Amino acid sequence: MVRYNTDIDEDIDDRGTPPKSTNATVQIKVNDNDDLPPKFTKGVYRTKIKEFYPITGMRIHQRLKFNPPIHAFDQDLAIDAPIRYDIIAGNERHLFSLDHVNGSLFLEKEIDLDAERSLPGNTFVLQIQASQVDNPLKTGRYYTNAIYVLLSYATV
Ligand SMILES: [Ca+2]
Ligand SMILES: [Ca+2]
């Protein structure tokens, strides 16, 4: 909803004789109201990664590239509230982490595709959410925001 702040000077018409009248301008200033949640730039973000070979068991923190990058914005453009990013489903094994501030996705563990036989289409699907830092109730999760990370075999 857009609220209107009105600042109206009406014609002032005194009833004297002869009547004196004056013109005035009407200014209507429109202020944006914080009524809309954040929205992602895309419904689905996709990327491809290769499995790891050999598996070392060492902890990793590898940034995954997306084009375009994962990004959400406040649809109240004039307010442009800061956004917080979270993974809300699909990360039960904590293979991934999402930077809460800028939405960058990281792979945290080495993946062996042979050990992921139950993974449909060799693809991890994460559901992500963007919420306003100043009002977590305003989230963009009502949109379909998924990240598809497609695994492929390492070329050895
Ligand atoms: Ca608005
Ligand atoms: Ca907003």
Comma- or semicolon-separated keywords:
156 residues, mainly beta, Immunoglobulin-like, 5-stranded mixed β-sheet, 3-stranded antiparallel β-sheet, rod-shaped, binds calcium ion
Structural overview:
- Residues 1-23 are annotated as: Disordered.
- One of its GO terms (cellular component) is membrane.
- This is Cadherin domain-containing protein.
- With 156 residues, the protein is an all-beta fold.
- It has one domain (38-152): Immunoglobulin-like.
- It contains no helices and 14 strands.
- It has strands at 3-8, 12-13, 21-22, 26-31, 38-40, 44-50, 62-63, 72-74, 83-89, 96-98, 105-107, 123-132, 135-139, 146-152.
- The strands form 5 sheets. Strands 6, 9, 12, 13 and 14 form a 5-stranded mixed β-sheet that branches. It has a 3-stranded antiparallel β-sheet with strand order 7-11-10, with no helix packed on it. Strands 1-4 form a two-stranded antiparallel sheet.
- Strand 12 (123-132) and strand 13 (135-139) form a beta hairpin.
- It is rod-shaped and about 100 Å long.
- It starts with a strand and ends with a strand.
- One calcium ion is lined by residues 32-33, 35-36, 76.
